[in-house]
Specification:
By secondary structure, the chain is an alpha+beta fold. It contains one helix and four strands.
Length: 72
C-alpha cells in the first residue's frame, strides 16, 4: 500500500523551520498550487510558532511510502 504526504516547510521570524504536513495530496497537484497555498498561509498569518510568525516559504516535498504486510 502506498501513502503520500505533502510536507510544506516555512521559516518563522526567528529563521527557524516550521513544517506543515498534509496527508494524501492530490496526485496532480502542481508546484505552482503548492507555492500559492504556502503564500496564502503566510499572508493570512494563521500560524504562530514559539519563535514568531511565519514569514517565508522555504521548501515543499511530496513523500511517498510503500508498506508491504508480511504474511507468516
Amino acid at each position: 500500500m502506498e501513502k503520500a504526504k505533502l510536507e510544506m516547510e516555512f521559516l518563522d521570524s526567528a529563521g527557524k523551520k516550521f513544517k506543515l504536513t498534509i496527508d494524501e495530496p492530490r496526485d496532480d497537484i502542481t508546484d505552482q498550487e503548492i507555492k500559492a497555498v504556502m503564500d496564502d498561509i503566510i499572508a493570512r498569518d494563521i500560524f504562530f510558532t514559539s519563535s514568531g510568525n511565519l514569514v517565508s516559504a522555504n521548501a515543499a516535498r511530496i513523500i511517498r511510502t510503500t508498506t508491504e504486510e508480511m504474511e507468516f
